[in-house]
Amino acid sequence: MIQVNILEAKTNFSRLVRLIETKEEDHIIVSRHGKPVLKMVSYSNAPIENRIGIAKGKLLCPDDLDACNGEIAALFGGQI
Length: 80
Description:
This protein is an alpha+beta fold. It has helices spanning 6-11, 13-21, 48-51, 69-75; strands at 2-5, 27-32, 35-41.
């Protein structure tokens, strides 16, 4: 990650875009008077259906996952 001021970003815009495109930088922060105002990141063109549910079927949940809920609730002073 690098941080540049607005004038530097304006002057070197193509170079900054190339850094993002080539993945030399994952994001670039543009600041005004030393305060961040913009985060430049690579645009993801992945369709929504390819992003949501990407871990489906990869995580296992034990059958007794909720077995200790009462004990945990009691530790926090609550009841189930």
